[in-house]
Please model this.
Amino acid sequence: MGGLTASAGQLRRPGPVRRVRAAVDSEWIKLRSVRGTWYALLTAAALMLLDSTVVCASINARWASLGSAAQLDFDPAARSLQGILLTQIFCGVTGVLVVGNEYSSGLIRTTLAATPQRGLLLAAKAVPLAVLSWVAGTAICFVSFLLGQAMLSGPAPHVSLGDPGALRAVLGGGTYLMLAALLGMGLAVIVRSTAAAVGALFGLLLILPILVGGLPHSLALDIGQYLPSSAGESMWHVVGAQGMLSPGAGCGVLVLFVAAVTAMATLRLRRSDA
Amino acid sequence: MIEADGLTKRYGEATAVDGLSFRVEPGRVTGFLGPNGAGKSTTMRMVLGLDLPTSGTVTVGGRPFGGLVWPLHEVGALIDAGAVHPGRSAYHHLLALAVANGIGRRRVLEVIGAVGLESVARQRVGGFSLGMRQRLGIAAALLGDPRVLLFDEPVNGLDPDGILWIRTLMRSLAGEGRTVLVSSHLMSEMALTADHLLVIGRGRLLADAPLSEFIAAHSADEVRVRVDDPALLARELDAIGATPLWETDGTLRVRGLPSRRIGEIAAARRLVVRQLADVQASLEEAYFRMTAEAVTYRTAAPIEQGSEDTSWAG
Model:
């Protein structure tokens, strides 16, 4: 075993910056070296582009039959981005898998035996996930927007990236998808199970708005706008609907929500036996 | 060196580890022996800072594990060979761990070579046999060239070649002056690998002794003797109070009398001695004798429920 004692010792790298960098690099390798990450993002992209094309082409075709109120409220940017409602689940699941797989296999113990600084570990997992999901999410939103606007060739009106609010909506969409991924990761740390975390993600983003929608109208509007999904919707809309926060406020509410879940996840990871 | 002091872990009412104090010294293989559920894995998890002790402390090289900034350089561990992402290749599994502690690609390839996984390094771990996963787990433990190594049940699921390989590896790691702690419930394996034993049962330390000392302390002196007229010899032995036990083939087992003395008695009676041998107890016999003593001792105190936990699965 002489060869085994050769080269590991002198590679020690002191310093807190090096420590953080090492943990982040390690988690990036983990994220990119499983197919699930890429499948989830590819599925998200395919669904969103398909959705944008079909929805915008269909609106364009039946534009004349829409009522004048609907024509007045029409938000070309948001319609081309509404595939986010589906895509958010795939981005969220990517976040769930970053942690859920480690708990289901027991790998989390090996991970913690290499990086016992648990707060650092969670941050190290969040950084590559956030960067990847933001870059991919934003790219998907750009293509969806352009594809959707091309379908709105008239009589339905379309917008370009230079129009007021359009670029902000596209970037808001990408940011929303990143926040969905971080939400998934936080939930998975808290419940320590892929299945339960995916369930919680569905519940929060898709089921909860429906349940709240069943409340009396004024109550539904009051509460509804602060739900994570509805608050997030404002980020990729240009024309604000009734009961929708402003894009800035919506983004703030969602960020607070994700931060709260992440804080709970940090406590859970630091306090519980692995 | 690993040092535990009053290490205790309770899960609600149940006590998994109960006031363990021990030192695992460098330069030898220390066997961590006990039945399933005795608290071996819980203890190892506490050493690695994965589980927090209810009370007591455990340190590695004088520091708690949680205080190690780059732990793979100090402590390597195989906790669970199944703890891998099935969709990740062996190479990327090791690379991610290595990078987390500032260890380079060259070292990753080195340990892959050392455990003999070169040909499958780029394949996904999901298709690996248990033996290959054990090798992968050992490669991970070796990544940082650590002074302290922990192996939890490393020979589980290995074929004879793999078991021999691990045994040799443990011995050579200890030979290089490293601290090696190996848990197992397989005593025959321990007898071949360990220099020193920590025996635990129901979370308590039952013995902390060199292997040979442990066996000597818990084995009765016994001599097996075969003669052409065992009944005659038996009467002679009875007469001096060393009543022998009969085996079905006429072999006598004698306790409390050295073989030299038995030979003399047989010679005085002109008996033909066909076999005369001191019986060396195995680790297994010594272990069961010791736990029997422990049970006897315990029943003097109020009898506890569910004490039949010295079963040895596997």
